[in-house]
Amino acid sequence: MLDDVTHLVPTDPRYPALLAAIPSPPELDVRGALEPGDALAIAIVGARQATAYGLEVAESLAAELAARGVTVVSGLARGIDTAAHRGALAAGGRTIAVLGSGIERLYPPENGALAEQILAHGAVVSQFPRTAEPLNYHFPARNRTLAGLALGVVVVEAAERSGALITAGLAGDLGREVFAVPGRITSPSSRGANGLLKDGAKLVGHWSDIIAELSEPWRSMVDGAGVHGETTAPPAPGSDEGRMLELLSVDDAQHIERLIARADVDAARAGAALTALELTGRARQLAGQRWVATGARARRP
Questions:
Q1: Cα(65)–Cα(156) distance, rounded to whole angstroms?
Q2: How far is it, in rounded angstroms, from Cα 47 to Cα 82?
Q3: Which H or E element spans position 241?
Q4: Where are the domains of the chain?
Q5: Which of 33, 69, 98, 131 ranks highest by number of CB atoms within 10 Å?
């Protein structure tokens, strides 16, 4: 039995804030380390039987994002997922692998060495019992967790019916951005991604296309700005972050459910806004999922 596994429940202050904001977040087994800055995350997913084009694009996108302080989330599967993790590691960035099996039943087994590399620069996580096998019905639940950990999901290559498309649909349901990389119209492995573009997914031709779709203050955190306490522009008054900061600045510490109700936003958007405020030093999470503003305008809890 592994002795370096941390079990996190959603109420634990170490639990990822973005994931905690989705309905019914799962308990997690974690190897490696999750950091607050991992909230600035983009998921990259796609086909297991990827083309050379897809692998190159996934690795390049992951490297470009990771080099700019964005954590790359993927599923450790063969193909696109593997390329995404490798790209992030090659750039010296952080990456999180979300398993469809138990933390002690790494799948696929040939990615064991890759998983060990990830532990030094991120985390491997699972919501299933420690020794659970990679059963087919695990993967839709895994895909929901993967989407919940990220601000958006990029589909690089996917067939018309694939787990990557399920992940993209779940991301949309959770209020996260959905992106797709266009592929050849004659390639079966690109039909799913091209279909997402027809349905309104954001087209990705360059890493900056992803960052451009993020709201402030997330965009200002790219390249590390704001993550380590640097000054960033205050959130716009009408934005989710601005509304949350206004509510926090005129009252004592408030539970996240109260903030969701008062701001009239869904849980996923509220969680993303609060996490962004925390990363820029404008809010702080207390025990019991209570939040308070920090700085001159804040009231003491």
A1: 14
A2: 10
A3: helix 240-249
A4: 6-212, 234-293
A5: 98
CATH 3.40.50.450 assigned to 6-212: yes
pLDDT at position 58 is 96
Residue listed under structure tokens 């905690």: 20
Q: Phi and psi of 46, rounded to 5°?
A: 170, -160
Residue 152: its H or E element:
strand 152-155
Alpha helices by DSSP H, 110-152? 112-119, 138-148
Write out the H or E segment, with its range, that includes residue 17.
helix 17-20
**CA distance to 155, 195, 222, per residue, from 84 (Å):** 11, 22, 18
User: What is the CA 25 to chain-centroid distance, rounded?
Assistant: 14
Per DSSP, the three-state class of 52 is helix
Predicted local confidence at residue 144, as pLDDT: 96
234-293 fold: Arc Repressor Mutant, subunit A (1.10.10)
Say what the pLDDT of residue 232 is: 57
Q: Report the pLDDT value the prediction gives residue 34, as an integer from 0 to 100.
A: 96
Q: Which residues of the chain have pLDDT under 50?
A: 224-231, 296-301
Query: What residues contact 167, with CB distance under 8 A and at least 6 apart?
Result: 43, 45, 143, 144, 146, 147, 153, 155
Give the pLDDT confidence score for residue 301 in this predicted structure.
35
Residue 291, strand partner residues = 254, 285
Q: How far apart are CA 296 and CA 65, in angstroms?
A: 34
Q: What 3-state class would DSSP assign to 236? A: coil
pTM (two decimals) = 0.80
